[in-house]
Amino acid sequence: MLTVEKQQFELLVGGELCVASAGKYFDLVNPSTREVFACVADATPADVRRAIVAARQQFNDGTWRGMGVAERGIYLKKIASLIRKHAKELVDLESINIGKTLKQTSFIDVPTAADCFEYFGSLEALPQDRQNPVSDPVKSLTTFEPIGVVVCIIPWNYPLIMTAWKLAPALMAGNSIVFKPSSLGCASIMRLAQLMKESALPPGVVNIVTTTDKEAAQLLIIDNEVDMVSFTGGTQTGREIMRLAGSTTKKLSLELGGKSPNIVFADCHLEAAVGGTMSAIFMNQGQMCTAASRLLLEEGIYKKFMDLLVEKTKKLKIGNALDYQTEFGPVISREQQRKALQYIDEAVQEGATIACGGKIPQDENLKKGFFIEPTILENVTNVMKVAQEEIFGPILVVMKFKSEEQAIKTANDSLYGLASCVWTRDLIKADRVARQLEAGTVWINTYGGFYNQAPFGGYKQSGFGRELGHEGILEYMQTKHICIDQTPEGKPLVANWF
């Protein structure tokens, strides 16, 4: 079994690692064992303000935004290199902190974060000035500039990946950043803060603060020196951020909750669809905003599909996230465990039946951790609470459908619209269904393909704005119109109006 030595992490402000002004720390708990494995500096409002001032001074000074794209890229590629150099350490920290299996942190999270920094750091150009074809005798240009001071706030479930998704494009666009990870899951990010200092980024370009203080967190949203907030997290918190940001009318990008449908047609590749269904709900114990937690299964293959799905789910090896044999780890906290069990109980009361799981594992080795069995619920209707609300846990609800139209209608009958899956060998049908689904991402015969070149974001109450791709760069830039008069002798009509 792997172990991680207890560590202490500080804030990164103005290019320096520093203690919080009140000298306080909060503990990080290993959800597999409930043991404290690290402590992190707990920022006060004064610390947050220092971080904002450092970012503002850097942006106003122009050192970072004045660099060429290639020069900024050198720093991002150095960060990518440092992530790869310290990959084993980051893998362990992410697993011990989140409960994510070593298989996932080793093969997905850490490499994806490094690749994202390298991809954006390798861009040869940002969005270019564009001349607009207007009929008047003027030269009309659309130009793109960095927004300024950007606050980035992320949840605990994918710290390294979401850090890269936000920092890499925002930095390449020329902004200065104040970054706040979740106080539940930030160990890997606080180690990344140390690597950021090692990368020799100019002071104030990236500032990383952690806090359990609500007033300190709110300051990041309401401070006049902040130009934009990019937030990933729950929909309810997103609404509160919108309310707070309204006081200073700053730009927002919100990637919020989801209740993603997974539509499986009878003509699918059965084993691939079963495997994909399991990945779409049980990776990271279902603690994913894109978790395909609603399985819509065509009647003709219902029993055959469910028999195989339940059989394979029951065989998943539940265990400590730091055990290489583990396939399914704990949820992040006692509260998440309690919440998931409550959803299961309420669903059963509403008429759902448990096909498998639904309990805390009885293994003595697991009793200290925040474990819950991977759970599949049948006889669910789309009006049930368990089918409409985001659970953020390993609970799959299954519903039958008879027709393509019914599947689409049920899939879209949700407040959310983040992602969706379609499984069928008929690619014409797949395309037809995909274009009718109200979701920012549709995966066909796969799940979880995120690419640095392609945008990611939601419809409806899953938020607005996009990460990654060309759109991800534009998210962190302002658009300006420059209009240059070109009338003969420089005497436009406006000069003779009065």
Tell me the CATH architecture of the largest domain. 3-Layer(aba) Sandwich
Mean pLDDT: 97
CATH structural class of the largest domain: Alpha Beta
Helix content: 25-40%
User: Which structural class should the secondary elements be placed in?
Assistant: alpha/beta
Overview in brief:
With 498 residues, the chain is α/β, with parallel strands linked by helices. It is 37% helix and 21% strand.
Characterise the protein shown here.
With 498 residues, this protein is an alpha/beta fold. The protein folds into two domains: 7-256 and 462-481, Aldehyde Dehydrogenase, Chain A, domain 1; 261-444, Aldehyde Dehydrogenase, Chain A, domain 2, CATH 3.40.309. Helix content is 37%, strand content 21%. The chain has 15 helices and 23 strands. It has helices at 45-61, 69-85, 87-98, 102-121, 159-172, 187-198, 214-222, 235-245, 270-282, 302-314, 334-350, 385-388, 404-412, 427-434, 469-474, and strands at residues 7-9, 11-13, 16-18, 25-30, 35-41, 130-132, 138-146, 149-153, 176-180, 206-208, 228-232, 251-255, 261-264, 294-298, 353-356, 375-378, 395-401, 416-417, 419-423, 441-444, 459-460, 463-464, 477-485. The strands form six sheets. It has a seven-stranded mixed beta sheet with strand order 15-16-17-14-13-19-20, with helices on both faces. A six-stranded mixed beta sheet has the order 10-9-8-11-12-22, with helices on both faces. Helix 1 runs parallel beside helix 7, helix 2 packs antiparallel against helix 4 (102-121) and helix 4 runs parallel beside helix 5. The longest helix has 20 residues, at 102-121. The radius of gyration is 24 Å and the shape is globular. It starts with 6 loop residues before the first strand and ends in a 13-residue tail after the last strand. The mean pLDDT is 97.
